[in-house]
Amino acid sequence: MREVRLPLLPAWIRWLGVATVAGVIFYLSVIAAPPANPIVEPPELIPLDKWRHFLAYAAFGGSLAYATTDWGWSTRRLVIFVLGLTVLYGVGIEIWQSFVPGRYMSIGDAYANALGAVLVSPWYVLRSRLSFVPIRSWLDSVLALADGS
Q: Which residue stretches of the chain are H helix?
């Protein structure tokens, strides 16, 4: 199978992405005021709230996985680090919410956070088929393909 080349942004940009995702999660989970009168929604198999948690922590785990792409660690160590840090961040936010008026800690939210973290797992299966190159090199190769060279 042919290796797919992907751009590797500079480390500071990748870590800025991680910090941004973490900051948005923190803001929406802890700082932003919860709705005064929550809308009563019809029963669902999986409530929208849980989907939001799931997707937010999938984004956090994904940004963290991309930020650590060039680390020389074994795949096993990287998986443990990324999944562990993502789950710990989610549990930490849930605990923090228990001290914020109008917020509460939810085991269901913590599970949704952890499942979102697990969504990043296929990244580590695909990584062996990917080649990360500096952004300039990647752009040059894309432009060369566009020119028909």
A: 11-26, 48-67, 75-97, 107-118, 122-126, 135-147
Q: What is the pTM of this model?
A: 0.83
State the CB neighbour count (10 A cutoff) for residue 4. 10
In the chain, what are the domain boundaries?
4-31+48-144
Read off the tokens for 1: 């199978």
For residue 81, give Cα distances in angstroms to 56, 112, 138. Answer: 18, 19, 28
* Residue 98 to residue 105: CA distance in whole angstroms: 5
What pLDDT shows up at residue 38? 56
Q: Check if the beta carbon of residue 63 is closer than 8 Å to that of residue 17.
A: yes
Buried b (16+ CB within 10 A) or exposed e, 118-133: ebbeebeeeeeeeebe
**Helix (H/G/I), strand (E/B), else coil: 124:** helix
| Calculated CA dihedral for residues 14, 16, 18, 20, nearest 10 degrees | -140
Q: How confident is the model at residue 45 (pLDDT cuts 50, 70, 90)?
A: low
Neighbours of 50 (CB within 10 A): 19
